[in-house]
Structure formats: C-alpha cells, structure tokens
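Bench log, entry 3. Co-assembly request; chain sequences pasted below exactly as received.
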Amino acid sequence: MALLEIRDVVKRFGDFTAVNHVSLAVEAGEFFTLLGPSGCGKTTLLRMLAGFEQPDSGEIVLDGQNVASVPPEKRPVHTVFQNYALFPHMTVAQNIAFPLKMAGAATDEINRRVAELLEDVRLQDFAKRYPHELSGGQRQRVAIARALVNRPKLLLLDEPLSALDAKLREQMQIELITLQKEVGITFVYVTHDQGEALALSHRIAVMNQGQVEQLDAPEQIYSYPKSRFVADFIGQCNLLDASVTEVGAERMTLEISGVGACHTLPVAGAQPGQKGCLALRPEKIKLGASLPADDSDEVHFKGRVHDCLYLGDVTIYIVELDNGMLVETMLPNSAPGRAKFFDDNDLVELAWRFDAGHFILA
Amino acid sequence: MNKVSRWVWGAAIGVYAFLYLPLAIVVLFSFNDSNLNAEWVGFTLKWYVMLFNDEVMLEAALNTLGIGLVTCVVATVLGTLAGYAMYKWRLRLLPVLVLTPIAIPEILMGVSLLIFFVMLNMTLGLVSITLSHIAFCIGFVAIVVRSRLQGMDESLVEAARDLGASPAMAFRKITLPLIMPGIIAGALMAFTLSIDDFVISFFTAGVGSNTLPLEIYSRVKVPMKLNPEVNAVSTLLMLLTLSLILIVSKVAPNALRAE
Amino acid sequence: MSKPVYGLGGRYAKWLISAPPLLYLLLFFAIPALIMVFAAFRFPGDYGGLVPLVDVNPDTGARELLLTAENWRDFLTFENFGRFFEDSIYLELFLKSFWYAGLTTLICLVLAYPLSWLIARSGKKTRDLLVLLVILPFWSNFLIRVYAWMIILGPQSYFSRVLNGFLGIFGIEPVSLLFSQFAVIIGLVYVHLPFMVLPLYANLEKHDMSLLDAAQDLGANAWQRFWKVTWPLSLPGVWAGVALVFIPALGMFAIPDLLGGTNSMMIGNLIKQQFLDSRDWPFGSVLSIMLTLSVLLLAAVAAWAGSRHKKKD
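Structure output for the full assembly:
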C-alpha cells in the first residue's frame, strides 16, 4: 500500500476551484514532484498535505489514516517553505531544535539530534548564527535540517530552490538528491520549473487548472506527453495539427494538414478521421540540405529556413514548410570552424523517424 | 553639489533650525539668572532648586507619572489585543472605534467625556483623566502592533504549526517575540502621550486634580505666575522622554521604526 | 476565518480577544459621543449643564423619567442648531478656522517638501537620522513647544527687539508679535510640521529614481522633471499630509488660546468657552458636531483625492 494516497480531493476558494477531483498515490521513499504553472493548484494541494488547508471533499490517507482534518502540528509531515520561514529570533541550532522541543524531547536527545543534523547539512560551525547572518544556500540547508530533525514520514518542499541563483540551484539539486537517498524519507516537491522536475524526480504529476494532466516518470512525460498542455509545458515541442487516416497494428498514418502524410506509432483509441496533433521535439528532427530518402521508417519534408537563433552550443532553426507551417529544429554546432550550417532562406530538408513523434488526440 | 541640491539643503537646514531653536531657547533660559525669559543674564540652577521645593509642581508631577503608568499598562494590553484582532479578522466595528479617536481633534473627545462623566455623577479627577487617556491611547498601540504583525512573515506561524507547535504555542514562541518591539514601542507611545496630554486632561480634570501639563498651562496663561521654573520643568520633561526613547532604542532597536 | 494562517485557535478566540478593547471604547468613546449628539437637542440647565430628564420623586425616592410622548417639546429642541446658523459670527468663526488651518497646511507643505525630498534621497544611515530629527520634537510636550514661541515672540525677546529696531529705521511703529494671528499660524505650523514631513517622505522614498533619469533622457529640465514626474507621483503623500495637518489644526484650541489675541479665536476656543465658561452644553455640543462634520468631510475629500492619484501609480 502506498504511503500517501490522495483520493478525489476538491478544494474551492469562493468560485475558484483550486484543486479539482485529484487522486494520486505516492510510494514510500519516492521523490515525487507536483509540476505546473502558477495557479494550477499544486501549492494548494501541498498545503492540504501539510494541514494548512482542509479539502472540501475527498480523503488524504497517510499511512492508512485519513488526515484530511488533522491540524498541521499533529501530522508526521514537515514542510520546507519557499522563503524557508526560518525563525529570525532564534539561532540555527534553536531553529533546528524547535520541532524536537515541541515534541517534548529530552535535552540531551535534542542536543544530539541537532548536532547530527548540523553535520548532515555541513553547518556545524554555524550553530550559533542567526538566519540573517547566513547565505541563501545555508538558510536553505537549515530549513531542510529543521524539517528532517524529527524524522517525518513525508517531507514537503514548496519551490525550495526558487530564491537561489542559477548556479547555486544546480548545486542544491544534486545535494537534494543525495540527501533524499541518504535519509530515505519520501519527498513531495512542488515546482513550476520543468527542468528541475525532470532532473530530481522519480515521478512527476503535471498539473493544470486544478487537475493532474499526466502522472509518469520524467522520461515518459518528456517523450510521450499525453496532452497538448503537457507537451507544450515541458520543454520545446512542435505541435503539428493532423488527422488520422489509417490505423494499423504497428503504425498509424496521419495527414498533416497541407503538408502531406506521415507515419507514427499508433495510440490507443485512435480511429480514422479523428483530429489531433503530432508532438515532435526539435532535437528529434534531422535537418540537412538534402537527406537520403532510402529509409522507409523516415518521413521527409522540404522547407526553407525562416529564422535561426544561435545559442552557442546549438543553433535553433525555424523552418517554414510549403503551407507556411513553422517547424522548430535544432542542430548542435559541432562542426569545427563554422558557427552554423544554414542561413535564412536556405532551402532545407526535414526528416524524422516514424517513432520520433507522438500523436495526441484532440 | 549642483545649484538645486544646494538650495534644497539650505531649506532643510532652515527647517531643522525652525524645529530645534525654540526648544533650545527653553532649555537655555532654564539656566538663566533672570525672572524674564528675555535676555541672557548669567548661569544659575536656582530655578531647578525652586522647582524641587514647589509642592504644587511636585504633586502635579506625581499625578502625571501615576496616570501615565496606569494608562501605559492598560492601553498596551487593550491596544495589543485590538491590534491583533484587527490584523487577524475582518472586523467592522473595532477598527472604527480604534482609529476614530486618533483621527478627530482631541477637543471633541475631551468635551464628550466631560458630559459623560458629569452625567454619571462621577467626580472629575485622576480616575476620569486616566480612563480618558486609556481611551485615546489604545488606538496608537493598536496601530503599531498591527503594523508589526503585518510586517511579520505569515509563513513563520505556519512553519511553527507544521513543526509541531499548537496554536497557543506558536503564538507564544513565534508571534509574541516577533511583535514585542511593536508592543514596546506602543507602550512607550502610550506613556508619552499620557504624560504630554493637555487637551483631554483639561476637560476631564475637574478642580481638585492637577497634572504637569495643566500646571504648566495655568502658569503660562497667567503672566503673574510665570517664571523660568516652567523652563526647568520643561527641560526635565524633555530629558525624560529623550531618555525613554534612548532606553527603548537600546532594548528594542527596531521598535521605534514601527511607525 | 479570513486567513488560512492559524494563530490563537478556538472558536471563541475572535470574541475573547476583541471584546476587551471593544467594550472599553464603546463605553469611553462611542457612548460619550452619542450622549453629546443627544445633548445638542436639549436645553441648557439653570446652573450650566443640561435640563435634567430624570428626577428623583421626593416621596418615594424613586427615579422618574420626566420625558413623555406629550411633553417632549419641553425637553428637546432644534433651537441650538438654529442659533448656529442665525448668528453669522459662528459661521464666520468656522470660516476663519478653516482659513488658519488651510494656511498652516500650505506653509507646512512648502517647508516639508524640500526636506522630505532630501531625506528620501539620502543614504540609508543619514536618512534614518534625519527622520529621527524630525520626529524628536514631536515627542516633547506639546505645551512646551507652544510656550517656546511665547518666549521667542514675547515683546522683550531678542527677536521682537531686533525686528522692531529694524522697522524703526523705516519709521514703522513697533509691532506686537505675540497674541496675534501671526503667532497663531507660527504655532500651528510648528506643532504640525512633522505630520506633513512623514507621509511625504514615506511617499517620495518609494519613487523610482530611474523615472527621473528617463525624463531627463527624454529632454525634461529640472523644473519639468519635478512638475511632470515627482509632483504628480507624490500626490498621495501630499494628500495624506494635508489630512494629517489640516484636521488637528482645525480643532486646535490651546495654540490660539496661548499665542492668539482676542481676534484670533478658533472653533476650539469657542467650544471650550461654551463648556467651561458660559456652561452652555447644548450649544457647545452643536459646535462640536459641526466641527466633527467638517472633519469627516475633509477626511473624505482627502481620502478620495489621495486614492484617485494612487490608482494612477
């Protein structure tokens, strides 16, 4: 049985439905991420897990017990806040000791655990400092130590890296993964940053407008988005409007409006005549002045370079197809001695394997 | 420094001189060996000696301090409650009752309290003055405390709850220590406002009781009774408030910035 | 609950916490105010105060309400309000008080603006010190501050003597500075100046300096930058300051009482006179109600004007 089960939870604020019939399960030891744009309901869901909000209906089952109406201090769940919420009038050690004191632990037990945790987050020398004397990264570590000190069953992290600069964020991501492996506590992580979610998580729930759009492992979410929203929200993705013309056992044929036919992997429930779009990541498209058309697994189209964006390691080419449709592709700038391969208005050919894209039914 | 900023600096120095010169003159003349506040004659401490032998002044001073202390304690408690309630809940009546006494001219409160106490057949005196002072000080404390609460990061209380503190514990361990500078600043304001108050005391004092501002007024009003003793008591009063501010800024460095 | 934050819990917390200050202010602020409004419709008593509504029955010793449905005209009247509008001296006095308060506000604004601007543009440490220097006199006793001007403007003071000596050169009669309208205005400005500086400073401090750079870049000279950028953006602060100075200045009674002469009375002095000297409480209450209405009107105007400009921010 899963450690945490959210069953059909609904939360409304006045007319606005923040969380709309969400059900999901988190396994013990998992690094689970709620990903979505701001206002998608991820933070509200997290606040219901912590106990700051009560669901209007539905159950939150933690370790077999429905905790939906249990106040936050009675839950074996701790939170790392976005702004860390370190108590400014307490030292680092006092901050970390706070949950133990509230739980009524003995003094030497408190001292021992605080020392352990300070060591875990490498802040032994900072025990007597006050939060305002620490750097952003150090505050972050204190917040995590404080939330872990009395071994909660579940650690909630509310965009904990958003206040850090890009370099520090990357370093903290690695620290978080290591820490989670070490302590073995289940993490529920909220973020709007898809890169962070892909890098950290075992599984991701992509949320939009109060609902879970897709719940999968990172690589599944990236490669096989189940909805236009997910495809669009995670990374760069071409969404080519198309309709199904033929459904086979191993392949399905699409008509991309105004451009031509192409093969793709069949999707469950697709019928000829249905409309949808083909989700195609830029890096999966081959680009060349002319490409050999000898592989029946590949689809070929001709086009003209409309724009190119030089990004240093790669260049992004926006290619205009015959019907005016724009397709984004990318090539690494790996050839020595030249910055990029094509210029605006160059005639080019595009090709991709039938299983490179993924059809999303409308 | 360009022409504009030189002009602005000049104006600013002028304004500061305007603010401080009169007070400096009061202090200076309290050491002046002359009955008239007109010309510097020579240094003396006789006005201070006279002041400490002046039964009327001393009694007034004692009354003022007593009223100030009681007002300070009661208004701080009630004002803190009001400030917390106004921060926490959307109330209709309380904010109006708390804020109006601050916004309207003091004389209005003075005369309405006069009618009220007389109708209750209450003897006007120290009690009626104290009750009135508390009424107008609550608002000042409430505002300072509320602004302190508003400046407090709300997630701190959530964090305390999240980490196992009951509501009362979170208030005691987190909210109270963090708003303490505001409460201290509010208490200081209540005390100072009370010992400084003239208008409301003037209407609610009756005949028998006297406070320092009332005594100063009566001497200043009648030139026959006026002598630099008033300068001396003024100087001491200024010293008292100044040292209070200093003490508070040492005890709670951020308290005075809450305004 | 309006906020999801948990504080002191419990269903009754709201009432337990707000009841003490609420009851206190109802008793010692709201009820006295209502009694005063009611008093404005009653007759003055023979020896001051009000004609009693309750009498003690000499036989039984019980208290009896004299007011009945038939005889209410003997106890309640609009006459006091009539008197206010019939005799023009009262309205004139109100107008004069408005004029004093208005002039005070204007002078405070002119003095406070450059100072506030300077404070807002200073470095953080200087800024805190300069603000403290503005607030500090405000912490000293109000009467002392008025008394200081009695010394300065007194006939024997250095200031008076130098001024009159200077006027004497041109053959002008010596002027008496104390007990004049001039002295009242100076006193009012002196006491209220911090109330103009603080809101103005708080507003100016928030201004984005790059707006001025942008204006300069786009060709505005110093005066245009002030008039087209700084001034309009500071209007919410100006209106807050105007309300904070005008309202207390309007109801002031100690300053005209101590610094003014017989011709520089303000509303406050008249109210004091009615309550303490002629002991005509009903008319004093009428004057107080009129002052309250003026204040409410002013506060509403200032709040409306301030918010109108705020929306443009």
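Residues 76 and 187 of chain B are 5 Å apart (CA to CA). The two ends of chain B are 32 Å apart (CA to CA).
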